[in-house]
């Protein structure tokens, strides 16, 4: 499975790089906003994009006027993510893997997560970077209470079937530059 996922990641990086654009990102923002506004007031996790990830930052900024917004902070391999409160004007510093995080961190637990990914399928399967951070995190959060996981990507990142293991957590919805798909 490790080899299969490694090949799938390599192909997914290339596909995402080929379609990454401001126009597609803007279309994705409109679709994502239509989904997350239904959850105003709930703690929302977004992310600061790295590499060629589609950006949720405009959605995070819009939602910050309605309730708490946070971003993931990556710890040691094998640990779940922690989430630091974020505001559009907070000072940021570089964290693990080149992701920017708030310089001053107050940790919260999100109820709605915008999840970055490399590829997805229509059954809620998600291929990430391989550290298992979101899988461990979603498993822990879902054990406590209902937690909505929204995959966010370019439509070209869709594949027929993501290679999955028993520890992989499924997404509840996928939002792309072309629309919204509920699983």
Lateral arrangement of strands in the main beta sheet: 6-3-2-1-7-10-11-12
> What is the molecular shape?
globular
What is the second-level CATH architecture?
Answer: 3-Layer(aba) Sandwich
Order of helices and strands: HHEHEEEEEEEEHEEE
Detailed description of the structure:
The protein has 183 residues and is an alpha/beta fold. The protein has a single domain (2-182), classed as NagB/RpiA/CoA transferase-like (Rossmann fold). The protein has helices at residues 2-19, 22-36, 57-63, 133-144, and strands at residues 44-45, 69-73, 82-86, 92-94, 100-102, 107-108, 112-115, 119-120, 126-127, 148-152, 173-176, 179-182. The strands form 3 sheets. An 8-stranded mixed sheet has the order 6-3-2-1-7-10-11-12, with helices on both faces. Strands 4-5 form a two-stranded antiparallel sheet. Helix 2 (22-36) runs parallel beside helix 3. The longest helix has 18 residues, at 2-19. The mean pLDDT is 95.
């Amino acid at each position: 499975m490790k080899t299969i996922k490694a090949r799938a990641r390599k192909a997914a990086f290339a596909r995402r790089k080929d379609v990454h654009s401001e126009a597609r990102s803007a279309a994705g923002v409109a679709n994502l906003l239509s989904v997350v506004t239904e959850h105003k007031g709930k703690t929302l996790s977004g992310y600061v994009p790295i590499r060629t990830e589609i950006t949720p930052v405009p959605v995070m900024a819009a939602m910050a006027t309605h309730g708490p917004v946070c971003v993931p902070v990556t710890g040691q391999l094998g640990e779940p993510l922690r989430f630091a409160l974020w505001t559009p004007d907070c000072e940021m510093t570089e964290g693990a893997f080149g992701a920017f995080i708030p310089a001053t961190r107050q940790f919260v637990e999100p109820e709605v997560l915008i999840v970055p990914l490399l590829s997805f399928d229509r059954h809620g399967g998600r291929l990430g970077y391989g550290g298992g951070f979101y899988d461990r995190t979603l498993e822990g959060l879902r054990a406590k209470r209902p937690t909505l996981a929204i995959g966010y990507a370019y439509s070209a990142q869709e594949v027929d079937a993501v290679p999955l293991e028993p520890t992989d957590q499924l997404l509840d919805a996928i939002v792309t530059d072309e629309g919204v798909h509920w699983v």
